[in-house]
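Most newcomers find our protein records easier to grasp once they have seen one. Sequence and backbone structure share a record, each on its own labelled line. To make this concrete, we reproduce a full record directly below:
***
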Amino acid sequence: MIEDVKKEFKKYASKKRADHSARFFKTGKGEYAEADLFLGVRNPDIYKVVNKFKKEMSIDEAICFLQHEIHEYRLFGLKALEYKYKEGDKEVKKEIVDIYLDNIKYINNWDLVDLSAPNILGDYLLDNDRNILYVLVNKEDLWSKRIAILSTFAFIKNDEFGDALKISKILLTHEHDLIHKAVGWMLREIWKRDSEIAEKFIKDNYDDMDRMTLRYAIEKMDEGVRMLFLKKIF
């Protein structure tokens, strides 16, 4: 089946898109995704391939794709594992989550994190011990930190904000813009559900908050209110 999947991918591959993706996802020397490889396959087409093979594909085959050097194959592997997770019983769900945590080094770009962490790890932790998030957020690895904050999106959707706010607090002074954006995004999602809680967090932590985090967090506010936050008039 692995070769059949690769053959299907070739139908959608584009050298022009691959070159664009390499620039967009920062694969240059010293950049956060240095030397990552792309086929130039769009996400909607990746999902088509997932839908074609997900039922017959084994977990081990999905892992092979997750551990592949090509970016789109890794996303395919993650989405195939997500399908297995959603369809599985408690034991299968735990197995998939363990696989996910054991393979974080392959979940090594923001899109791979964002399209998997809430749906696998976050969903699982809705009803399980969440201490792993605090282990992840305190690792040096950039992607472990982003997985920690993005996993809380599953909680936010269920109107549970405590862990998202605690992890946001831990990450406020991080130096990387991918963390600034992720924290701001989660604060914005909280604001959409409970503006009072989000605005209090922003006010209480304003002086420690990166400007990018702030801009992401207040993006959906009314223009007048947004300007007050930008100027710290509150």
Residues 71-87 form the longest helix (17 residues). The two ends are 59 Å apart (CA to CA). The chain has a mean pLDDT of 97. DSSP finds 16 helices and no strands in the chain.
